[in-house]
From TrEMBL, chain A:
<dbReference type="Pfam" id="PF02770">
    <property type="entry name" value="Acyl-CoA_dh_M"/>
</dbReference>
<dbReference type="Pfam" id="PF02771">
    <property type="entry name" value="Acyl-CoA_dh_N"/>
</dbReference>
<keyword id="KW-0274">FAD</keyword>
<dbReference type="InterPro" id="IPR009100">
    <property type="entry name" value="AcylCoA_DH/oxidase_NM_dom_sf"/>
</dbReference>
<dbReference type="InterPro" id="IPR037069">
    <property type="entry name" value="AcylCoA_DH/ox_N_sf"/>
</dbReference>
<comment type="similarity">
    <text>Belongs to the acyl-CoA dehydrogenase family.</text>
</comment>
<feature type="domain" description="Acyl-CoA dehydrogenase/oxidase N-terminal">
    <location>
        <begin position="6"/>
        <end position="120"/>
    </location>
</feature>
<feature type="domain" description="Acyl-CoA oxidase/dehydrogenase middle">
    <location>
        <begin position="125"/>
        <end position="219"/>
    </location>
</feature>
<dbReference type="GO" id="GO:0016627">
    <property type="term" value="F:oxidoreductase activity, acting on the CH-CH group of donors"/>
</dbReference>
UniProtKB/TrEMBL annotation, chain B:
<keyword id="KW-0560">Oxidoreductase</keyword>
<dbReference type="InterPro" id="IPR046373">
    <property type="entry name" value="Acyl-CoA_Oxase/DH_mid-dom_sf"/>
</dbReference>
<dbReference type="InterPro" id="IPR006091">
    <property type="entry name" value="Acyl-CoA_Oxase/DH_mid-dom"/>
</dbReference>
<dbReference type="InterPro" id="IPR037069">
    <property type="entry name" value="AcylCoA_DH/ox_N_sf"/>
</dbReference>
<protein>
    <submittedName>
        <fullName>Alkylation response protein AidB-like acyl-CoA dehydrogenase</fullName>
    </submittedName>
</protein>
<dbReference type="GO" id="GO:0050660">
    <property type="term" value="F:flavin adenine dinucleotide binding"/>
</dbReference>
<dbReference type="Pfam" id="PF02770">
    <property type="entry name" value="Acyl-CoA_dh_M"/>
</dbReference>
<feature type="domain" description="Acyl-CoA dehydrogenase/oxidase N-terminal">
    <location>
        <begin position="6"/>
        <end position="118"/>
    </location>
</feature>
<dbReference type="InterPro" id="IPR036250">
    <property type="entry name" value="AcylCo_DH-like_C"/>
</dbReference>
Length: 398, 380
C-alpha cells in the first residue's frame, strides 16, 4: 500500500509545471481564474502552444502524434493545467472524435482528419442529442438515406456545444428505420459548410451562447465520411461515451475553483471580518474540501488500477456523480459568499475583453453566472441519474 | 501508487476473515454480548494464539510492528463480524500510548504481555465534560509523597469493565481547556478508591464509568513526563481514529451486502424490489458513500504512521468525517430498504446499523470533525 506518486511521476509533474509557468499566456490564465468566457482565438492559441510541445493529443497513441503518457501522467497533466489556470481543452475533436477515428476509421480517414485536429485546422462539435433523444440516445431520428456515393441527411441536432465555432460535426444518424433502435444507426462526419446546414444559438439561463441547434436540410454527405460499418454506429457511440466519462471527476478543476473561492472569501467582508473567518462559511468550505479529498483518493485508486492493467468499469460513474456535485457545490458557495454583489448581471464584462473598472471586484462578475452554467454538469455526459442506472445494473446487478 | 495489500497483509486478511466467520455467527455474538466480560475470551485467546494481538505492538517488545495498513486489515475484518473484543482500545490505542510515552522498563513490563494476550488495557480519556476533547480533562493527580493521588470521574471507558490496567488521562497542572498539564497514569482498577460501574454500550462492546476517589499511585504509574501527554495522546488518538474507520468500513460493507441481497430476493408487486428505480438509486447512493469511505480509510491508514503535522491532522479528521457520515447514511438507508425486517433485533443488519450510528460517539461524530476541520482550514 503506497498512496504516493513515484519519483518519476513527480519529476514529470515538475516538467509540466515548468512548461505551464513559461508558456501559459497570463491573459488567458486570468480569464480562466475569474470565470470569464474564452474566445475561439484564446482556445486556439493555447492549443497551438500545446501542439508545439507535442502535448495537445495527450490521449492518442504515440504513432498518431500522441504522448504515450501513462494514465497517472495524464491525470497529473490535467491537474497541473487546471491549477495553473489553463483552459480546459475542447474535447470534441481531440478527445472524442479522434479516438473513434483511431479505433474504427480507415487509413484514409486517419491520414486526413487526425493531422487537421492536431494543428487546429478543424474545430469539431458533437451531433448526438436531438429534441427527442437525450438520455435515450438510441432514439435519434436524424435520417440519412443512401443515394449513390452520398447520404442525404435530414433532421435536427441540439445542445451542440460551441457549434458556432465548428467547421465539422460528428453525427449519429439513422440509416435503417426498420431495425431495433441501436441497430440502425451510423456514425457520420459532416462538413459544417455543406449546403443545407444551419446553426441557431440557444441562450442558456446564465445568458450565455454556448450551445446551439443544428438543422440538416437535404445535406449531401459523401459515404466516405462514414466511420465504421453502416448501421454499426452505435459501437462508435458507446466507445466515445466511455472516453467522455473518464476524467469527469474534474479534481484539478475543483481544486482550482476551491482555491479561488477561498481567495474571494479573503477579500469579501462579513460583519467587519474577512468572510473566510465566518464560522458557517468555514464549515461549508470544510465539508466540500473533505469530500473533494475523498473523491481525489477514489480517483487515484481507479488510476492505479488502470495503471496495473485493469479496465475502468462502472466506478467511473461514481466519479462523474460525485465530481460534478462537488463542482456545483463550490460554485454555489462562490455565489453565496459574494452576498449582494452576486446580483449585477454584467454580460459585457463576462463575455468580452473588459478593461474597464469592475463594478465591485474583478472576481464578482462570474460566480452567479457560473453557478447557473454549471447546472449542466449533472445533466451532460450521461445525466447523474443515468449514471446511477449504469451503476445499479453493471456494478450491483439490479 | 499501489493500493493493493502485500502478500502478508492478504494472508492476515484471509486468516481473520475465516476466523471471524467461524467464531462470530450472529447467535454466538448475541450470547457473548449478554454475558460477562462482554466479549469472547475464547476468540480473544484465538487472536492471541494466531499472533493477531501482537500485530500493532513494537517488534522489540514481542510484537510484529504492524503499520496503519495492518491495523486496517485487522479492524476491517473485526468490523465485518461486529466483534466485541477491545482490540482497538487495548492493542492499538493502549499499546500505542505505552509505546509512545512509557519508559523502557514500563514498555518491557506491559507490551510483551499485551502482545501475548495476558494483559488487557483500556484508555480513560472521556469525562462528564470533555466531549471528545481531552484538553477539557478535570480529573486531577496531585503529588503525594513519592507518588500521586488521583481524583475525578471517567466516562464510557470502552473495554474498561474487563481491563487489567486502565490508562487514565489526568491533569497534573493547568486548567480545563489547556493542552499543557495533561498526564497519563496506569491505574489498577482493583486499587483502593477506584469504583467501576460496567454496562453494555449501544455500539456493542461493554464499557464502564470510573470514580476515582483519592487513588494512591506509585511514582512509576506515570507514563512520560508530568504534564506533557497531550501531543502523544493526540497522535495515538489519530491511530485509533484511522483504525476505527477500518472497523466501520467492514461493518458498512456487510450492511451494503445484506441490503443488496435483500433487494434481489424480497418480492413485492410480483417482482424483486430491486427492480424499482427509486430503490436502485438509494442502493447506488450507499455504494457511492461506501466507495468514498473506503478511499478515506486507506488514506487514514497510510498517514496514521506519519509524524504529527497539520496535514496529518486534516487528513485524519477528514477521514473520520467522511466515514462517520457514510456510516450513518448507510445504516439509515439499509434499515429503510429492508423495511420492517431491518428493525428487528433478530437480524444482524440491525446490529450493524446500531454499531455504525453509535461509533460516532467514540472520538466524535461527523459534526465534531466538521468543526475540527473548519478550525484547521486556513492553513490549506
Amino acid at each position: 500500500m503506497n498512496i504516493h506518486f513515484s519519483e518519476q511521476e513527480l519529476a514529470f509533474r515538475d516538467e509540466v509545471r515548468a512548461f505551464l509557468a513559461d508558456e501559459l499566456p497570463a491573459d488567458i490564465a486570468a480569464k480562466v481564474r475569474l470565470g470569464k468566457k474564452l474566445s475561439k482565438q484564446d482556445h486556439q492559441r493555447w492549443q497551438a502552444i500545446l501542439h508545439r510541445r507535442g502535448w495537445y493529443a495527450a490521449n492518442w497513441p504515440l504513432e498518431y502524434g500522441g504522448t504515450g503518457w501513462s494514465v497517472v501522467e495524464k491525470h497529473l497533466f490535467e491537474e497541473e493545467c487546471a491549477a495553473a489556470g489553463a483552459p480546459r481543452l475542447i474535447s470534441f475533436g481531440v478527445n472524442m472524435v479522434a479516438p473513434v477515428i483511431i479505433k474504427f476509421g480507415t487509413p484514409e480517414q486517419k491520414a486526413h482528419y487526425l493531422p487537421r485536429i492536431l494543428d487546429g485546422s478543424d474545430w469539431w462539435c458533437q451531433g448526438y442529442s436531438e429534441p427527442g433523444a437525450g438520455s435515450d440516445l438510441a432514439a435519434v431520428k436524424t435520417r440519412a438515406v443512401r443515394e449513390g456515393d452520398h447520404y442525404i441527411v435530414n433532421g435536427q441536432k441540439t445542445w451542440t456545444t460551441l457549434g458556432q465555432h465548428a467547421n465539422w460535426i460528428f453525427c449519429l444518424v439513422r440509416t435503417d428505420p426498420e431495425a431495433k433502435p441501436q441497430a440502425g444507426i451510423s456514425f457520420l462526419l459532416i462538413d459544417m459548410e455543406s449546403p443545407g446546414i444551419s446553426v441557431r444559438p440557444i441562450i442558456t439561463l446564465d445568458g450565455a451562447h454556448e450551445v446551439n441547434e443544428v438543422f440538416f436540410d437535404n445535406v449531401r454527405v459523401p459515404v466516405a465520411n462514414r466511420v465504421g460499418e453502416e448501421n454499426d454506429g452505435w459501437t462508435c457511440a458507446k466507445y466515445l461515451l466511455t472516453h467522455e466519462r473518464t476524467g469527469q471527476a474534474g479534481i484539478g478543476i475543483s481544486k482550482a475553483a476551491l482555491a479561488h473561492l477561498k481567495e474571494i472569501a479573503r477579500h469579501e467582508v462579513i460583519e467587519g471580518r474577512p468572510a473566510l473567518e465566518d464560522p458557517l462559511l468555514r464549515q461549508r468550505l470544510a465539508e466540500v474540501e473533505m469530500r473533494l479529498m475523498a473523491v481525489e483518493m477514489s480517483t487515484l485508486r481507479i488510476l492505479a488500477r488502470a495503471q496495473a492493467g485493469g479496465v475502468p468499469g462502472a466506478e467511473s460513474s461514481i466519479l462523474k456523480i460525485t465530481g460534478s456535485e462537488i463542482r456545483q457545490a463550490i460554485s454555489d458557495l462562490a455565489r453565496r459568499v459574494l452576498g449582494p454583489h452576486a446580483l449585477p448581471f454584467l454580460a459585457e464584462e463576462l463575455q468580452l475583453e473588459h478593461d474597464g473598472e469592475p463594478l465591485h471586484a474583478d472576481y464578482s462578475v462570474a460566480p452567479a453566472a457560473q453557478y447557473l452554467n454549471l447546472r449542466k454538469l449533472s445533466i451532460y455526459g450521461g445525466s447523474n441519474e443515468i449514471q446511477k442506472n449504469i451503476l445499479a445494473k453493471a456494478q450491483l446487478g439490479l | 501508487m499501489d493500493f493493493s495489500f502485500s502478500d502478508e497483509q492478504q494472508m492476515l486478511q484471509d486468516m481473520l476473515s475465516r476466523l471471524v466467520r467461524e467464531h462470530y455467527g450472529f447467535e454466538q455474538r448475541d450470547q457473548v454480548r449478554r454475558s460477562a466480560p462482554g466479549f469472547s475470551e475464547a476468540f480473544q485467546a484465538q487472536l492471541a494464539e494466531l499472533g493477531v494481538l501482537a500485530v500493532p505492538i513494537d517488534e522489540a517488545h514481542g510484537g510484529m510492528g504492524g503499520s496503519g495498513v495492518e491495523n486496517l486489515v485487522v479492524m476491517q475484518e473485526l468490523g465485518r463480524g461486529l466483534c466485541l473484543e477491545p482490540y482497538l482500545e487495548s492493542q492499538i490505542l493502549g499499546g500505542g500510548l505505552v509505546q509512545a510515552l512509557g519508559s523502557e522498563s514500563q514498555r518491557e513490563a506491559l507490551l510483551p504481555a499485551l502482545a501475548a494476550g495476558e494483559l488487557l488495557l483500556a484508555v480513560a480519556s472521556e469525562e462528564p465534560r470533555t466531549h471528545y476533547r481531552p484538553e477539557w480533562t478535570e480529573t486531577r493527580a496531585e503529588r503525594a509523597g513519592d507518588g500521586w493521588r488521583l481524583t475525578g470521574r471517567k466516562s464510557v471507558v470502552i473495554g474498561g469493565q474487563a481491563a487489567h490496567r486502565i490508562l487514565v488521562v489526568a491533569r497534573t497542572a493547568g486548567e480545563p481547556g489547556e493542552c499543557d498539564g495533561l498526564s497519563l497514569f496506569l491505574v489498577d482498577p482493583a486499587a483502593e478508591g477506584v469504583q467501576r460501574r460496567a454496562y453494555p454500550t449501544m455500539a456493542g462492546p461493554w464499557a464502564c464509568d470510573l470514580t476515582l476517589e483519592g487513588v494512591m499511585l506509585a511514582d512509576d504509574a506515570l507514563l512520560g513526563a508530568a504534564g506533557g501527554a497531550f501531543e502523544a495522546l493526540g497522535h495515538q488518538l489519530g491511530h485509533a481514529m484511522a483504525a476505527q474507520c477500518a472497523e466501520a468500513l467492514g461493518s458498512m460493507q456487510q450492511a451494503c451486502e445484506l441490503t443488496l441481497d435483500y433487494l434481489k430476493t424480497r418480492q413485492q408487486f410480483g417482482k424483486p424490489i430491486g427492480r424499482f428505480q427509486v430503490l436502485q438509486h438509494r442502493m447506488v447512493d450507499m455504494t457511492t458513500e461506501l466507495e468514498l469511505a473506503t478511499s478515506m480509510t486507506i488514506l487514514a491508514a497510510c498517514v496514521a504512521d506519519e509524524p504529527a503535522s497539520q496535514e496529518r491532522s486534516r487528513q485524519l479528521i477528514a477521514a473520520q468525517h467522511v466515514v462517520k457520515r457514510a456510516a450513518q447514511f448507510i445504516a439509515e438507508q439499509a434499515i429503510q430498504l429492508h423495511g420492517g425486517i431491518g428493525m428487528t433485533w433478530e437480524y444482524s443488519l440491525a446490529h450493524h446499523a446500531r454499531h455504525l450510528v453509535m461509533l460516532g460517539h467514540r472520538f466524535g461524530d461527523d459534526d465534531r470533525h466538521l468543526k475540527a476541520y473548519a478550525d484547521l482550514l486556513e492553513a490549506s
